Amino acid sequence: MELRQLKTFRTVATLRSFHQAANVLHYAQSTVSEQIRTLEEDLNVSLFIRSGKQIMLTEAGELLLQYAQQILELEEEIKAEVTKLNEPQGSLTIRIPETMSIYYVPPLIKQFHQQFPKIRLNFNGCSYYSLPKELQSGITNLAFLINDTYQSAQIETETLFSVPLALVVHPEHRLAKQKKIATHDLKHELIFLPKADCSYRMMFEKTLAAEKIEPVVVMDVNSISAIKQYLMTGIGLTILPRIAVQEDISAGRLIVLPWKNPCLNAKLLMMWHKNSWRSPILQAFMEMTREMFRGSIS
C-alpha cells in the first residue's frame, strides 16, 4: 500500500467518479483504475460497488476512507513540521474561477512563488456542489467562488471584495439601442454562459427562473474568450464580470445593457473547510491573498 494509492482512492471515493478523479489528479483514467485495483488486491477486499457509471463505497471502502484521511492529513502535517527546518516543499490544490485566474491571480502567483519557490500550485476549474466533500477530504485545500453567498455548515467563507457583473451584447444586437432593459426583454434570447466561472451564472439563472423567463436556448461554453468571440458575431448575450469585458467595452466591441438587477452584484469568496487541518503553507497563501486583495474593488 502506497500513499499515492491512498490519495487516488480518497479522490475517487470523494467524487464517486474515476473520470473526475483522473481530471483532478492529472492522471490518465487507466492509471486511476490500476491504482485502485492494486489497492484492492493488496487488501484483498473490494472497495467499490460498480453499477454502470455509478460507483459506491463498500463497507470496507468506507472504513478505509476514514483511515486514509487520517494518514494523509498526518503526512501533510509531518511534511509541514519537518520542512520548517529547510525550504518549504509540497503542493496546494485550489479551485478557482477562470476570471480570477486571468485577471486577479497572476501577481499573487508571482509573490507566492518568490517566497515559496518549491511549492507547487495546482489550480482546478470552478466547482460548486462538490466543494464541501472536496474540502473535507483534502483533495482540494482552498476554493474561490464569484457569487453573492455560499451556505454550508461545513464551510468557512470569507468575502475578499465585490465583483460587479455586466450583461453585455454586440453593438448591433437588437437590445443594444434600448435605454432601459427589463428582465422580460431577455425572453427568447440566445444566452451564452461560462462553465469555468460556474457560480455567478447561477445567480443569473435564478433571476430568470423567478420571473419565469425562458431563453430560446442556453449554451454552456468552456471559455470566456470564446463567449466574447461568439457575441462579436452579433448574436446572443452573456453575463460576465465587468473586468472580463472592460477592454472590449472601451474598444466598442461590446456594450453593457442598462439592466438593473441585484444579481449583478457578486463577491469574490475564499472558502475552506472548518474542521480540516490547514498547513502553514496554506495559511501563508490565504494571508497573502488577503493582503493583496484587501479593499480591492473590481
TrEMBL record:
Coiled-coil blocks: 57-84
Signal peptide: none
Gene3D superfamilies (alphabetical): 3.40.190.290, Winged helix-like DNA-binding domain superfamily/Winged helix DNA-binding domain
SUPFAM superfamilies: Periplasmic binding protein-like II (SSF53850), Winged helix' DNA-binding domain (SSF46785)
InterPro entries linked: LysR_HTH_N, LysR_subst-bd, WH-like_DNA-bd_sf, WH_DNA-bd_sf
HTH lysR-type domain boundaries: 1-58
UniProtKB keywords: Coiled coil, DNA-binding, Transcription, Transcription regulation
GO terms, molecular function: DNA-binding transcription factor activity; transcription cis-regulatory region binding
One Pfam assignment: HTH_1
Similarity section: Belongs to the LysR transcriptional regulatory family.
Protein name: Transcriptional regulator, LysR family
Taxonomic lineage of the native organism: Bacteria, Candidatus Moduliflexota, Candidatus Moduliflexia, Candidatus Moduliflexales, Candidatus Moduliflexaceae
